[in-house]
Amino acid sequence: MESVLTNGDLVPDMGDKSVVGGGGVEDVYGEDSATKDQLVTPWTISVASGYTLLRDPRHNKGLAFTEKERDAHYLRGLLPPSVSNQELQEKKLMHNLRQYDVPLHRYMAMMDLQERNERLFYKLLIDNVEELLPIVYTPIVGEACQKYGSIFRRPQGLFISLKEKGKILEVLKNWPEKSIQVIVVTDGERILGLGDLGCQGMGIPVGKLSLYTALGGVRPSACLPITIDVGTNNEKLLSDEFYIGLKQKRATGQEYAELLHEFMCAVKQNYGEKILIQFEDFANHNAFELLAKYRTTHLVFNDDIQGTASVVLAGLIAALKLVGGTLADHTFLFLGAGEAGTGIAELIALEISKKTNAPLEETRKKIWLVDSKGLVVSSRKESLQHFKRSWAHEHEPVKELLDAVKAIKPTVLIGTSGVGKTFTKDVIKAMASFNEKPLILALSNPTSQSECTAEEAYTWSGGRVIFASGSPFDPVEHEGKVFVPGQANNAYIFPGFGLGLIMSGTIRVHDDMLLAASEALAAQVTKENYEKGLIYPPFSNIRNISAHIAAKVAAKSYELGLASRLPRPKDLVKFAESCMYSPVYRNYL
Ligand SMILES: O=C([O-])CC(=O)C(=O)O
Ligand SMILES: [Mg+2]
């Protein structure tokens, strides 16, 4: 039997080899299901010549093509005589990368590598995750988005603008890969804490999806980054001659809703019920609405609301080992009442409610939010956006964060406002004055928007703070002691969470899956991590962590009857591992 490739060429049907590990992640070429030593040769049929093979990032191996492969695939003379291997290539590239002093140049070098040799890109990223994460992801990806127009070389992902209205299904069909499993989509209106970057927000879906593969093991060919361009309100971009997006003010209201609706319908029509759509860096008003509107009809996940909530809840559960008590014993104060703030607050309230059987309305009362107008209190209720209303508790109005800290006396202070340098010395000193071990999370990204630095947190609290931040900080020495700050970033959650949904064929996201992911992540914090004051495990072990998160998420999905891949695999951790993409080169003979 033969199956037809979309370009019309024929390849042998890979039969049950096209199903990885007995089930998880499909690959029509059978390539990812083959082990390192198995032979796979789709391109001898689908790729015209050796020259094209060298320019196909999915299959190119550069100098690592063996003598035999060079003969078999018309590569003689197209490469210099030396034959390398992946390890040596990796060593050379890491050496080269480290020569660049400017982090953005490292980012550009990594993007070039991804365009040239995809497996080598992922090999580097997986083997050097702690060093390279800040380059391909927060914080440098933020700078890359700001300068996207000028560093732009080859387009990545799909751009869907107002010009494509009425044609979105056709646009999706232009993408070369057909069996997509996860889409990360942004409209660029709130890129990290950097504001409206319009079409240049594309760096975010691209970066997030490279983590889906590197950290969560989802095949690169199953990942599709999308930017929806409805214009931008960023005057600087509108007057920039190099701006790559639509030069018009953002469409809003019905025009916006119609384009998004066409997109959501086209995606489901083209890829089916089980396609995962991750919303990323939408502005508050659209983020909440889109999630509420589509969560009952699509497999959608908002990383900024739900992913951030899950990672923070994991850190809080872990932190209880250091600060004592249960979550219900703590008092939480947020600076920032947007997607992250209210998302985290809601998940904490839900977890406490599940653990204590108290109603949500009660458990919410230990959680307070401060927005740009001060403490969210009941007297402000009428003028509050709807997503803030459940947090408007009885209290007299308080304008400043410092006064709110003094009035509420929180044990946990969480920054999610996207505004940097707001946890001042006075704020942190106040936290340290009534808490033996204040728990402070400065979550805004990138580093420039962080509420305080790690050094400030440790110094101003006299070394007593338990601290984590959204963007990474180096270890800090304070009075002879070295403190290692944790990184409370949703990158811990979404890759494993997504893998869990995909491998179980889940059709809807349920909040209980977020709780399961939090508990799975918290369970990965080791004794040694705690001894260093860490409430998150290091990223170096992330693929293993992702497999555990995926297993717990899938288990919850089966329990809730939302998983369509039957029968349920017995050992879900092993199953998750068997589904994960490996970047090791294949033999091409
Ligand atoms: O991208 C990150 O580092 C975390 C995130 O989702 C955001 O800040 O919007
Ligand atoms: Mg985000």
UniProtKB/TrEMBL annotation:
Report the active site residues.
Y137 (proton donor), K208 (proton acceptor)
* Listed InterPro entries: Aminoacid_DH-like_N_sf, Malic_enzyme_CS, Malic_N_dom, Malic_N_dom_sf, Malic_NAD-bd, Malic_OxRdtase, NAD(P)-bd_dom_sf
Q: Which residues form the Malic enzyme N-terminal domain?
A: 114-295
What is the UniProt remark on how the cofactor binds and its stoichiometry? Divalent metal cations. Prefers magnesium or manganese.
Cofactor(s) listed: Mg(2+); Mn(2+)
UniProt keyword Metal-binding present: yes
Report the SUPFAM superfamilies cross-referenced here.
Answer: Aminoacid dehydrogenase-like, N-terminal domain, NAD(P)-binding Rossmann-fold domains
The regions listed as transmembrane in this protein's record are none
Position of the signal peptide = none
Q: Please explain the role this protein plays, according to its UniProt record.
A: The chloroplastic ME isoform decarboxylates malate shuttled from neighboring mesophyll cells. The CO(2) released is then refixed by ribulose-bisphosphate carboxylase. This pathway eliminates the photorespiratory loss of CO(2) that occurs in most plants.
Task: Fetch the PANTHER family from UniProt.
Answer: MALIC ENZYME-RELATED, NADP-DEPENDENT MALIC ENZYME 3
Identify this protein by name. Answer: Malic enzyme
The protein's organism comes out as: Actinidia chinensis var. chinensis (Chinese soft-hair kiwi)
